[in-house]
Amino acid sequence: MIYKHHQQKLLKSMALFLIAIFLQFLFYIPTPVLSQNTNTCSSITVPLTAEEQTYARAAWQYFVKNYQPATGFTNSTGGYPSGTLWDMGNYLMALNAARWLNLTDQADFDTRLNKFLTTLSSLKLFEDALPNKVYNAATAQIVDYGNNPIERGIGWSALDIGRILAAFDVIRSCHPQYNDWLKGIVAKWQVGRSLKDRQLFGATVLPDNKTLLVQEGRLGYEEYAARGYQLWGFSAPQAIALQPFKLVEINGVQIPVDTRDFQSTNANNYVVSESYILDGIEFGLQGELADFAARVLDVQKRRYDTTGQLTAVTEDNIDQAPYFLYNTVYANGTNWATITDANQPYPQFRSISTKAAFGWHYLFPDNAYAQKLFDAVKDLRSSDDSGYYAGIYEESKQPNKALTGNTNGLILEILYYKARGNRPLIALSSVSVSTGNSSENVTANSTVTAPTPTPADSSKITEVAVAPIPPVGNPQPSSSLKLQRPLSVIERRYAQAAWRYFQANYHSKNGLIDDRSDFRGATLWGLGDYLAALHAARSLDIINPKEFEERTRHLLGALTKLPLFANELPSRGYDSRTLQSIDYGGNPISDGNGWSALDLGRMLAALYNLKICHPEYTAAVDKIVLDWSYLRVVRGGILSSATVSKNQDGRWLTRVNPETRLGYEEYAARAFQLWGFNVEGSAVGGEYQTASVEKVKVPIQRHRTDTNFKNQYTVSNPFLLYALEFGLDPQMRSLFEPIFQAQAERYRRTGTLTASATTLIDAKPYTVHSTITGQGNSWVALGDDGQPVAKGRLVSTAVAFAYHALLPENRYSQELLQATTDLYNPLAGFYEGFYETTGKTAIGFTSSTNSMILQSLLYKVMNGQPLIRPTTTMKSPWWTAVTEGNSGRGLPNTAIQQTKLISDGSGSYWTSTSKNTSLVTRTKVTE
Question: How far apart are CA 478 and CA 872, in angstroms?
Fold first, then answer.
């Protein structure tokens, strides 16, 4: 008997082997060797056809229309704000596919993923161990399957965890800048609690409120989920082992069926299409799973051959009660069963699944039956452009109009798989990095590559090397900043993202930073931003002392080598590779193009704070500023700037005129006062003209008789920088508050978020001033040439961060922050903002935006103290030179600061040591 049993088993095995060989030739699936697969995520080797682009756009629209901006999640079904970890995995896979298929740009990808991961990181976990089975997609609350809030939760699903772990792996492989974040999320989860006896275990809550661990997964899905675990180092070998299964003959095909059925385990052992399709497009079907998949497709074809009914079965939502069904090849002893999770039959609602038809077609592109399935569903899109319907009912022949993330997410994954040349998504041995560089501009069929960090002609330009200043010794005792608290986890992530701008745009040979990521140029204002960012990053412990010292010494070394205009002051712009003077278009100007008193003020503020908070740099800083001549920049108590222009005879002429840019002049003047300059005529104070904006008197320019030049526009940037660094003295507060109030009132009146600022974008006119008032008009966007920019208004990321730091309890500032915190690329920094009219992220990265964000975060943890700190000594080379007098450089007349830090009931702020004239009427900031 024993011999006969083994003989029968051997004959059966041989038969199965021959059948498998036949089926694999009939349904051939390419299965590349993993170690040989060296193409990148962005490598689109078989671009989508025009028709396929239509399919992809339609599927992506589901996620656009079902996006929850407060959480970054998407609805599992159309209009229903609920989602499981499986649904979240679907969205991540769809988002990755949409990025590489150019359905969305890098900025939108970053914004969506940042919001998603921020929410996911903070989810309440079941028993503080693992994510609950389901959450409200709009609020991220723990809920039950009816979307009802439930304090404890209902348990976890190991299969859903496996799904999202596979999605995490795709994201970290294709977008490595998110790897650390994802690793942190997985590390926070107690994944080990879902593993037992080398298998996957879910958790459920019993009626007595006790937690019961239940083995999860049946043949197909169990192996898929275990692979997801394996990608993150969690082993479940029994779950991958295929056993226990048996073969059941259905329509003449031997179908592998899990022997753990509903009757014996209270869990369904359904055979469906989706698990094999997922395995194929993500991992690549190989070995027995390739054989099993071929059988599952073949049996559906056999049913069609017998009945004339197209068959593509898998689980799906439906558009009527009971709303979710498993359309199966086999389940719990019944062929072609259509059941609920509780094994209740609904054969009248069996349907042809859209996602299954797409999957079989692209896994088996030469299979005639798979083509028939595909032709039946390829145009099954909703009329209102909300995505693909779930399928077609077999009995009624009517569409199953359920719209789901599962259907549309899988379609996007499948199309991405096709565009990659039918290469599995996770079978990767090398990856590409998405940087979202502002110069990126791709079309639907193009291959996405990481943009080069320098202009196309950069090979013709050799970067000059500049030596850092000599070491300055160990840090000295100083009035170093006293932080009231550490950054929160989320705040630290923002700070790290902002600092990445200064890592990505650093010139290691000369120590300079580009003002903007798409232009190899630097101004003194931009370098002041960098120095302020350096100080903030070190104070927040984003960089270590060694990096701070190396970068600071290198920057100071570069400042000593910058050519001076007329041998007096730094020029308006420099090529950040050669250190040669350039105009604002990047064109070389051998003798320079004048100087900016405003840029000089920005640098003086940053240099002052460096030597106050890090006294070991005092001598080096003072040496730099003592090389400059101030004879023409400070005249008659006001600040003046120089410009160069060509007259009619072709001669280059220098003209020096007073500064009049509202807010900027006042900021720069306060910085000059730190060094002892008498610039009372430019410092905040006196009388200001106002204009009524949203029924608020907004300052538009200072009353003055020393010049006919007029301020062209009012924006938030300089007032915010002033408030962060110098605090709000009564004079500045009277300007600051109506500027904020007008923006808040506009939001209340129109619902349009408003954070008016000067921002840089990646297309003409490159600089946009989203004004509060400009050239006599409210809320106009202007270019540098003063011309209106249609639909050009932006909500500034930097302004949002700064207003929230300064007014943390104000509801409008909270709204602004919530709308902008996710506008960053972890490799490149924060984007400039988003367009008011479209909500689309403005492509552009700048030192000013990322510096202000770092300074805003530092201000928060300093308990609202001004970032500029007072000096404790007047004994330094600068003050010594001032005391000696007769310098011939226009140094101050007396060795006394013209401003001082004081504290009163309204807070701490810097104020002039002399009194100013009358002020504009103060406007109270309201909630």
Answer: 8
Give the tens place of pLDDT for each residue, 273-285: 999 999 999 999 9
Token representation of residue 290: 């390739």
Tell me the pLDDT tens digit for each residue of 368-395: 999 999 999 999 999 999 999 999 999 9
Q: CA 387: distance to chain centroid?
A: 25
Tokens of 873: 């000594």
CA distances from 336 to 260, 300, 331, 914 (A): 18, 10, 8, 90
Whole-angstrom distance, CA of residue 420 vs CA of residue 366: 17
**Which pTM does this prediction carry?**
0.84
Exposure string over 120-155, b if 16+ CB within 10 A, otherwise e: beebeebeebbbbbbbbbbebbbbeeebeeeeebbb
Given a contact cutoff of 8 angstroms between Cβ atoms, the answer to whether 714 and 774 are in contact is yes
Output 512-516 pairs: Cβ under 8 A, ≥24 positions apart.
512/555, 512/558, 512/574, 512/576, 512/579, 513/576, 513/847, 514/576, 514/847, 515/846, 515/847, 515/848, 516/438, 516/760, 516/844, 516/845, 516/846, 516/847
**Nearest to residue 849, comparing CAs of 812, 806, 794?**
794
Q: Which residues contact 277 (CB under 8 A, 6 or more apart)?
A: 293, 314, 355, 356, 359, 360, 363, 410, 414
Confidence of residue 915 (pLDDT cuts 50, 70, 90): low
Query: What's the rounded Cα separation, in Å, for the pair 299 and 304?
Result: 9
Residue with tokens 């807070």: 907
Q: How far apart are CA 638 and CA 648, in angstroms?
A: 30
Decide if pLDDT at 448 tops 60: no
Q: What is the distance between the alpha carbons of residues 453 and 499, in angstroms, rounded to a whole number?
A: 17
Give phi and psi for 428, each to the nearest 5.
-120, 140
Q: Three-state DSSP class for 695?
A: coil
The pLDDT of residue 3: 33
Residue 488: closest CA among 722, 171, 821:
821
Q: Which residues pair with 404 in a beta bridge?
A: 77
Q: Which residues pair with 226 in a beta bridge?
A: none
Q: For the chain, what is the mean pLDDT?
A: 89
Q: How far apart are CA 68 and CA 337, in angstroms?
A: 35
Q: How many Cβ atoms from other residues are within 10 Å of residue 365's Cβ?
A: 14
